[in-house]
## 1
Amino acid sequence: EAQVTQNPRYLITVTGKKLTVTCSQNMNHEYMSWYRQDPGLGLRQIYYSMNVEVTDKGDVPEGYKVSRKEKRNFPLILESPSPNQTSLYFCASSLAPGGVTQETQYFGPGTRLLVL
Amino acid sequence: AQKVTQAQTEISVVEKEDVTLDCVYETRDTTYYLFWYKQPPSGELVFLIRRNSFDEQNEISGRYSWNFQKSTSSFNFTITASQVVDSAVYFCALSEARTGANNLFFGTGTRLTVIP
């Protein structure tokens, strides 16, 4: 089944304790992206990757890191989480990286993070 | 700069009523794509439709229809004969070809409640 998976789905942590949220897709998609969803703000892009070893900042990258060592995986790293990073996080992927044809992005199930 | 506005924060309708969700966008690009996603109470994001800027034909899919009007920069979504299962948050989103990347810019969402 074609899908985007995220782990963990729920996470409670404390300020400053490094964490990683994994994202994996099995559709051989080139483009992957991370968004956070906050009440009243919709979804905002954190980082994106147009292919292996190619990553770039989105609209709200502060406090986050990413890596794209393999095509299928795009982990989101919070080196020192703070309470303002409490949010619902979504990973997404699409077939092509962008340009004239903007492919549909398919989203993972979301990861709900609470930073105390 | 790009922007997506969903002015209706919350809408409530009685089952079987028709309802239209508004989406107004801003972009300087001549080639762009518009999307609608549904987020049911379970939290996942479900893709509904993708429309490019050169195709202004309205689209119908079952009880769902979309009205794209470039003259007013709008891409409205109508649900006919609403059902309780339509209760969700609906997001309109925009991506621009000129960025070269498949990045989505979301509106803040409209929460639809269908009352039985």
## 2
Amino acid sequence: GAGVSQSPSNKVTEKGKDVELRCDPISGHTALYWYRQSLGQGLEFLIYFQGNSAPDKSGLPSDRFSAERTGGSVSTLTIQRTQQEDSAVYLCASSLTSGDRETQYFGPGTRLLVL
Amino acid sequence: GESVGLHLPTLSVQEGDNSIINCAYSNSASDYFIWYKQESGKGPQFIIDIRSNMDKRQGQRVTVLLNKTVKHLSLQIAATQPGDSAVYFCAESGATNKLIFGTGTLLAVQP
């Protein structure tokens, strides 16, 4: 079946603008995760959803970052007033449930460049 | 704080040789470990996982070893192929389901 998809694949924006990144999880997966990968670095957890609720937002770097999930499926990560340090690859993953030891499957990512 | 680190940032091997990628973790409460492969321009791809009640698990051409005494994880790739060239990440999780990733090891397979 289809894997996790993300759009856009690449986004170039100017400092101060808002951006929205979209994630479509694997059909039937109830848990959805956002991570950020800066150049040459590992992945940094941002937020996860179980259904439409976000029990853990601890990784969001500032109040400029927010995310929502509707219908237990698609999620949108919004970055307001983007800064150059926001440039990174934003990766989305989904798992069947949010139980521990559930395999997380990743999408291809959105490469964000803030000029 | 919690951390997962890799000993070797770059590993170069000859095609056909076996590869060993190492990872150290610091959180003794972690009980689930995963290896991901990330090719250029793509998202991480699940390779193999292991739970803390095991010390070895085998997949197709890959083996993961877990040594809880020294908090060490390794990924062994048999008969390494050019298609194995990628960055490999280890990740851990414990009481929560968020993954903590290391910075990655670049595996370069020489033909």
